[in-house]
Design brief:
Elements lengths: L2 H5 L6 E4 L5 H11 L3 E6 L4 H4 L5 H4 L4 E4 L5 H12 L3 E4 L5 H4 L4 H7 L4 E6 L14 H7 L23 H23 L3 E6 H6 L3 H8 L18 E5 L6 E5 L3 H11 L3 H5 L3 H6 L1 H13 L3 H10 L4 E3 L3 H5 L2 H5 L37 H8 L4 H9 L5
Parallel strand pairs: 1-2, 1-4, 2-3, 4-5, 5-6
Antiparallel strand pairs: 7-8, 8-9
């Protein structure tokens, strides 16, 4: 057994993937990186499947693709046969779509009683708004997250509506739910239905807002540049174009490092205690801001870190991809077609970060799925293709 094969902890698990857009595909991408065989159900008649550019290669590597029209009864029968030899179904259609075509959980559990069926939707499959259509941008506003960003400002990424954080956050929660369901099934033999709400997955990112509300604050509004635990602390403008750095001073040692970096020993005695610094936070923020305004963020970061002061400059994404820390840990591997992708957001003791195979061509695994897995003859596949069932 190869070292990689031994690390593919989900090897032998088969996933039928109906998902599209971002959250579901990112979930199944991660399952594939951990060794699961992911079979993506696509169709040549759907524009979003025909378009293989943009984010598609990034979100759909480590997968097979088969093309099948599940609106046709013969297509449904093929999918029933595929589910019977699979372990997990992942979908994010609106509530009644798959059920209408005999592909809902209640139908499929009759075929595979220990099936793990995961439905992701905007607000969940129950409740008064369960039939609402929802996109990540809308859910970020609904969740209260956008309200914590601040007033509308086009320079602040559309007040927190963009980029769409809801989808990748949902993918992480969804992956964790699937792993938990797999563990449960291995212990008990039981299948599971998972109702994943993108709204609720986003709300769980706001514990401080919930805490403030629980402590009696009527409105947990934007915090701006405030960091209640740091004095001085916040995000400060530096000398370069769109050049910013975040700094947080919380301990006496960090305070000593800051005035040393700034060559301001005169500040040491006047603000020697944490209480004194908190009282004078606005003044100290102004002093630190003035010092940083004359320096480029990268140089300031180097100086501050060398003095033991927590600091991180704001990087654009080109800077993130080229970052030596992330490069050393293999965060952005090259695929065989020389495109880059995200690795799993963790690594094992050997540095392995998951399988990284290229995204499939549309219907590129039809022969494997319909022939090898389902046992159809070439003539049967040709006939179903001519009828528009496969394709």
């Amino acid at each position: 057994m190869s070292a990689e094969r031994g690390q593919l902890v989900l090897a032998g698990l088969r996933v039928v993937d109906f998902s599209w857009i971002i959250a579901g595909p990112m979930t199944t991408k991660m399952l594939g990186a951990m060794g699961a065989e992911v079979i993506k159900i696509e169709s040549t008649t759907r524009a979003e499947h025909a378009a293989r550019g943009g984010s598609y290669p990034l979100l759909n590597n480590n997968k097979h693709s088969c093309t099948i029209d599940f609106t046709k009864p013969a297509g449904q029968e093929l999918l029933h046969r595929l589910v019977a030899i699979s372990d997990v179904v992942v979908e994010n259609f609106s509530a009644r779509v798959l059920a209408k075509y005999r592909l809902g959980y209640e139908e499929l559990r009759k075929i595979r009683p220990d099936l793990l069926y995961v439905s992701a939707s905007g607000v969940g499959r129950t409740g008064p708004q369960k039939d609402w259509l929802a996109y990540g941008t809308l859910l970020q506003a609904y969740s209260g997250r956008a309200g914590l960003i601040g007033p509308p400002n086009l320079k602040l990424e559309a007040m927190g509506i963009l980029p769409v954080w809801t989808d990748p956050v949902t993918a992480m929660w969804e992956t964790m739910a699937i792993l938990a369901a797999i563990h449960h099934r291995r212990r008990t033999g039981d299948g599971a239905y998972v109702d994943m709400s993108m709204l609720e997955g986003t709300v769980t990112l706001l514990p401080e807002a919930l805490l403030r509300h629980s402590l009696g604050s009527e409105r947990a509004g934007p915090g701006g540049n405030e960091d209640g635990e740091s004095a001085p602390g916040g995000c400060f403008r530096c000398a370069g174009e769109d050049d910013w750095i975040a700094v947080a001073v919380r301990s006496d040692a960090e305070w000593q490092g800051l005035w040393t970096a700034m060559e301001r020993p005169d500040l040491a005695a006047a603000y020697g205690s944490a209480a004194a610094r908190r009282t004078a936070k606005a003044e100290l923020d102004s002093v630190l801001g003035g010092w940083l305004a004359g320096r480029h963020a990268e140089a300031a970061e180097t100086t501050l870190l060398a003095c033991g002061v927590p600091a991180a400059r704001s990087r654009n994404f080109a800077g993130v991809i080229g970052d030596e820390q992330l490069a050393a840990r293999g965060m952005f591997p090259h695929l065989a077609d020389d495109k880059r992708t995200f690795a799993l957001p963790w690594r094992d003791a050997t540095g392995w970060r998951g399988r990284a195979e290229t995204a499939p061509a549309l219907g590129g695994s039809n022969a494997y799925v319909f022939g090898d897995l389902l046992g159809l003859s070439e003539d049967e596949i040709a006939a179903l293709t001519a009828e528009g069932v496969i394709g």
